[in-house]
Write a structure and sequence with these properties.
Elements lengths: L8 H19 L1 H8 E2 L12 E2 L2 H13 L4 H13 L1 H13 L4 H19 L9 H7 L2 H21 L6 H19 L3 H21 L8 H22 L6 H6 L1 H16 L12 H13 L5 H6 L2 H17 L4 H31 L10 E2 L14 E2 L12 H4 L11 H4 L22
Antiparallel strand pairs: 1-2, 3-4
Helix pairs in contact: 1-3, 1-10, 3-10, 3-11, 4-6, 4-10, 5-6, 5-11, 6-8, 8-11, 8-13, 9-10, 9-11, 9-16, 10-11, 13-17, 14-17, 16-17
Amino acid sequence: MSIPNLPLAGLEIGFVTSLICSLLLVCTTRWHGRYSLDATRGVQKFHITPTPRIGGAAIMTGLWLALCFLPLAQQELLLPVLLASLPAFVFGLAEDLTRNVSVRARLLATMASGAVCWFLTGVTLDHTGLVPLDALLAWLPFSVLFTAFAVGGVANAVNIIDGFNGLASGTVIIGLGALGLIALGAGDVNLAQLCFVICAVTAGFFIVNFPYGKLFLGDGGAYLLGFLLAWLSVMLVYRNPSVSAWAPLLACAYPVFETVFTIARRLWCRRHPGLPDSWHLHSLVKTAITAHYLRRLPVPLRNACVSPVSWSIALVPALLAVNHSSAPDVLVQGALASFALYLAVYGLVAAAWHARQRQLPPSSATAPTYAPAAAAAPTVAVAVPVLARQTAPQVMGAPALAAIRSASHPHPHGAANGVHSLADVQREAPVTAFVRRRM
């Protein structure tokens, strides 16, 4: 069955429902904003207007209503997945509303969703193409735990990249679209339809989120979409043995790459892997490129211009997965090449950031510190990272790390000439430098 011949009722209902609910959440901010507004101050905050961060509620509503209009076979596939997604969604939404749910609790909730989904469907990841790992996956308890861990990891990865307008939702649409095309090519029409339905529901939210950022995905939405992306990947491999397990990995590649590199970077710096910072690729693109070259644009549009860079990185491995879904050797090489592409882009962007800082007047600071924000200044006076010149430290050999190991100096005239705005610099927590700390 080709794409034009797929049933459209579920897609249309899901898209319209998600769009309407997203608009309603924006229009009713005065009533729920006390709990749902995302503050503008924080280590990873780049927006300048408090914005509702409960877009996941609109997506969940759209999914449940779309379920009612799907054929019976697809309802039987989607219903247990939606039920199993509730722990991940509820814990994420609770964080959106209370700001009091730990990262560990949310990660465990997404892993619990994976275990619940296995209990309801009997589906696990039972082969990967790696012989030693496949031998362990033959033991059901290990297979269930590995599947739950992988699902939780991908869900958390989607939450990590949720930093700018349309970034996470657009990446998920690319990943789900790739999974749907792979399933369609393998003859699994029902699974392909589910992928496209979730794409349509996500697109309804996407219109409100991109480019002006009127509504944020929030942790609830990020964990929900990440769980759905991960579980449909597991279902694709389980239901279609001809599809290599590397194909869905490439469909989810960009958030996975970002997470793996972030963990390695923080461990190298001897920092806790869960400690937030603003050295993600999307953060560097904003501060090194869009904030400088597109500074005449309004802040929401500058934020939105970050997303296409990340989408392009996500699109390359996704296309490889679609075109070579049954060729594991090609997919492995594609995964390595795609990760090399990610590192190359990261290195170039980090080098651009570093080059900009070297052009600025040297700081008079003699030790790493952070300039305090003015107590009651009506002008733009913010806390920016200040790192003194020091002897060459031991840094990672990767070009991405070597390019920015000396970190950044603040621009003394940035606030005055408009190079930096409140949305362009990190204001509270320290930025992680690529310098190994002494234990």
